[in-house]
Amino acid sequence: MKFSLSTPYTLEYRTPKSRLSRTVTLADRFDVEIPEITRFDEDEAFRARFVPYDRYQQQRERYLNREKKQIALLNNDMHLRGFDGKLWADCASDSRTQMPDLLADVLRLGDERYYGSDFPSRIIKDHVSKNGRAHPAGGFLHWLDTHEDNNRRKRVLILRSDGAATIEGAEYTRPDNIAEIIDDQRDRVREEVTDYAQKNFVIQDGRLFAATPPPVWMVGAEPNCVYRSALRAAKPMPGRVLFRIDDKAGFEAIIPHISAAKHYTPFYEDVEIFAADRSYLAIDQVHFAIEGLKGKLTLAATGFSDLPDETLHLWKAFRRAINAWDPIDADPGKIHELGKSFIEAVPKTNNVKTALGPDFKAFCALMPMLDLRPRIKPEDDPELANLTL
Question: Rounded to two decimals, what is the model's pTM?
Answer without folding.
Answer: 0.84
